[in-house]
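REQUEST FORM: STRUCTURE PREDICTION
Request ID: SP-0412
Submitted by: Lab K.M.
Chain count: 1
Length (residues): 155
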Amino acid sequence: MSNKKKFYIATDHAGYAVKAYVKDIVKNLGHEIIDLGPDSADRVDYPDYAKKCTEAVITDKGSFGILICGTGIGMSIAANKVSGIRAGLCHDHYTAKLTRQHNDANILCFGERVVGKGVIEDMIEAFANTEFEGGRHAGRVAKIEAGCTFGADLG
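STATUS: Completed
RESULT:
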């Protein structure tokens, strides 16, 4: 498949139960997926696994990531601390499609406790099959990549 993409996946203990399901979806779509852990549902700290995934996506240019925790919130906050990462917290097909189309997101985040398996499958398919639209969105993404200095003039 010429449009084959590489995905890295990591979870915490609250996202572990759907990880195998997500990996199967990605493989069935014809893409490669690399599991960065954890290897069990034992309690772990999500920032550690967000770091593993963001480092892999930054190092492996053109790759993507999937981060799963209980709500997706912690993973997305941790991932978005890394320069060059645009992690979109998604809840459905529409948000997964638009985070790629308008924000050029390179990591999909979601919560195992928030979305069901049917929605997960739909989100992954939308994320994997949507390309960045560019155009008016390119300048906005460039501003994000340049670094936000919000509030710098307030102090």
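NOTES: The longest strand covers residues 6-11.
Reviewed by: T.R.
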